[in-house]
Amino acid sequence: TKTLYPILESLNVKPCLDEDIYGGRTILEGIVNRINECRKVLFVVSESFLDIGQSSIEVRTAITHAVHNQFQGYIVVLIKDGFPLERLPDELKNIWWCIEYFGWSEEEQNEVILKKLTDIFKPE
């Protein structure tokens, strides 16, 4: 994520990390407010993603927002380092048909990921 942050900023995308969400609010209120402000939501799926208990709250909130607003492609999933798809949270597996996703291994150059992200986050 530390490598991804400057790449997103170079695309004029404002990354929001967990520590940016709360600011004196309840966890759920912070998550809902941030997701409502987003044009797209990017989840970086790795081993640590599964370790964070709140990720399922964030995933469910993003899914609810996307379904309610009929946003196809609103949720973007970046699969890190060959993470096995069968270990994805069920919430993501159940909507796999309507999300954008791609993989990113440590061997890939930043230019490759920049191109993928540019295509996904280009202004509509």
TrEMBL record:
SUPFAM superfamilies: Toll/Interleukin receptor TIR domain. Residues 1-121 form the TIR domain. It holds the Pfam family TIR. One of its GO terms (biological process) is signal transduction. It comes from the Eukaryota. This is TIR domain-containing protein.
